[in-house]
Amino acid sequence: MGKKKVLISHCEIPQPALDLLKEKYECIICPELPAPTRQQVLDRLPGVDAIFWWGKGSLDKEFLDKAGDNQWDIARPQWLLGQQLKDSVVGIVGLGGIGQAISKRLRAFEISKLLYTGHKPKPEATTYSAEFVSLDTLLRESDYVLIACPLNSETRSMFNEGAFSKMKPNSILVNISRGEFFMYDLNSFRDENEEEVVDQSALVKALETGQIFAAGLDVMYPEPLPPDHKLLSLNNCVIVPHLGSATLKTRTDMAMLTARNIIAGLEGTPLPAPL
């Protein structure tokens, strides 16, 4: 007897959990991140990483607090100085749909070089003058490292102490990929363990010791972080609460696309957005 055939139309289940489902069922899978969501992530991204690209390590604490308290100190002209995107080297980990769209938008910032890494070179990269390099090379040469890769067995804990030790002391890390991930038990569908792309203990150490300049996180683990988590107390770490797709229109578009996929699957008609 063959596997039971199921249609999975999802917005939030990560790929490893889907792989587990495939072991038990014959799966027809619809995408996790439809086009409307990709666009919203990109629309949100400048509002988040413009802060990181501004580059002042203490933006979220010292600077923003003093800005509202009339405590600007004009006698310290270098207080507000940080990094700049113009003439910098930007490295993108994961040149998928979001990575490519980010590459397109980076042109306006007049960066000096765009690097990317992944399984293999992508033909689309030539459109953005992006150079395929190893992860080690990307970490050593990039002023800005943007994580836009999926979470899987290969990327889990990719950014550990070893990775941070290779980055420039003036480098800024931006993570918009995956923070928290749950492996699902197929019978109970309860969380068994969590994995992550960034080793947060290693990130804390890198930020505290000045191994890297600053970090901006849209994703983390757990979500939300506990109030006493070290990342929340660091002046050179800016955290936003997983806002990549957080608009009414985008969430509505995601739900409608999911529903249309399910209806099409039940009716036996072509799926609007197959994976």
Automatic annotation (TrEMBL):
<dbReference type="InterPro" id="IPR006140">
    <property type="entry name" value="D-isomer_DH_NAD-bd"/>
</dbReference>
<dbReference type="Pfam" id="PF02826">
    <property type="entry name" value="2-Hacid_dh_C"/>
</dbReference>
<dbReference type="GO" id="GO:0005829">
    <property type="term" value="C:cytosol"/>
</dbReference>
<dbReference type="InterPro" id="IPR036291">
    <property type="entry name" value="NAD(P)-bd_dom_sf"/>
</dbReference>
<dbReference type="GO" id="GO:0030267">
    <property type="term" value="F:glyoxylate reductase (NADPH) activity"/>
</dbReference>
<dbReference type="GO" id="GO:0051287">
    <property type="term" value="F:NAD binding"/>
</dbReference>
<feature type="domain" description="D-isomer specific 2-hydroxyacid dehydrogenase NAD-binding">
    <location>
        <begin position="196"/>
        <end position="244"/>
    </location>
</feature>
<dbReference type="GO" id="GO:0008465">
    <property type="term" value="F:hydroxypyruvate reductase (NADH) activity"/>
</dbReference>
<keyword id="KW-0560">Oxidoreductase</keyword>
<protein>
    <recommendedName>
        <fullName>Glyoxylate reductase/hydroxypyruvate reductase</fullName>
    </recommendedName>
</protein>
<dbReference type="InterPro" id="IPR050223">
    <property type="entry name" value="D-isomer_2-hydroxyacid_DH"/>
</dbReference>
<feature type="domain" description="D-isomer specific 2-hydroxyacid dehydrogenase NAD-binding">
    <location>
        <begin position="67"/>
        <end position="181"/>
    </location>
</feature>
